[in-house]
Amino acid sequence: MFKRKDKNTQNKHPSLPVPGTSRDPGVIGTSEHDSKEPRVSWTKRCCNYIYDRERKLFCGRTCKSWLCIIAYSIMYLVFLSTYTMIFLFGSLSIIKFLDDYQTIDKAELLTYSTNGIGLSATPTSLNILPVIWYRNDSKDYAKYVNELENLLVKRKKREAKNYTDLGPCGTSPFGYGNSPCIIIRINKQLKWSAKPLDEDNARKLNVPLKIKQWMKMDQKLWLHCEGIHSYDKEHMGKITYYPDPPGFDPKLFPLSKYTDSPLIAVQISNFTLGISLAIKCSLWYNEGVSTIEYMLYVTPKKIENLRKT
């Protein structure tokens, strides 16, 4: 009975494919011709992913989609940077008006000493290097004059003080170009203090003869400048201090947050032009010695005229 039914159903639907033959699309691998599919290499797949010519896609996206993503990224970065700048400006503005806020000179932050307190020298060259180099021309050394003027103007606003004790180093052009001035100060450190040299430490430290003479006059933290090498001392010329003798009053230390470190000006004159001079200034006190070094080089006008010709 069941066999007859199968025959009838098969005759009623002659168009249906017989299972197990190549005409059945649902059966895979029934024919050797159908089982062989084209294989695409990975390089071609990668190239097709980067750029699909048929659908005109770059990395799976259209040009319009990529433009939208780039525009959104730029807008987001602009917003983020603007928000950060506004936040920083607001924070610094609030800190500026706090009672504990105090301005610290950039040179003081970047000048350190291996022993004791650090010293700062003004002016400096580019990148806060202790190098003073100029041609003997007002246009060339104007940058150093401006730096000294800015230093004194800022301090006058805070202290309302006239620096008459600095002599010619207290007014423009500060001795530039024949006798340039360098202003030296002790870096501001709120809890730092020192005692003047006593005779025992002066012997141990082998202080210069001039300091021994100054010690008989007063008890201060003495500053002394000289050439580093014998060659420098030979061509150094004359060193003049303002005030003279050059000493810091130990009673002013430790400094408060409202006071500035006192200044001492060092003026160099009658030195040899066209030669680089290495100068070292040392601060002598009972707890140790602090030093700062800088270079001075002034090109004479004669050499400049010869180079032009």
Automatic annotation (TrEMBL):
Keyword Membrane: yes
Lineage: Eukaryota, Metazoa, Ecdysozoa, Arthropoda, Hexapoda
Compartmental location: Membrane
InterPro entries: Na/K_ATPase_sub_beta (IPR000402), Na/K_ATPase_sub_beta_sf (IPR038702)
Single GO MF annotation: ATPase activator activity
Family, as annotated: Belongs to the X(+)/potassium ATPases subunit beta family.
Transmembrane segments: 65-89
Example of a GO cellular component annotation carried by this entry: sodium:potassium-exchanging ATPase complex
Disordered, as annotated region: 1-36
Keyword Membrane (UniProt): yes
UniProt keyword list: Membrane, Signal-anchor, Transmembrane, Transmembrane helix
Topology with respect to the bilayer: Single-pass type II membrane protein
Pfam families associated with the record: Na_K-ATPase
Name of the molecule in the record: Sodium/potassium-transporting ATPase subunit beta-1
GO BP annotations, alphabetical order: intracellular potassium ion homeostasis; intracellular sodium ion homeostasis; potassium ion import across plasma membrane; sodium ion export across plasma membrane
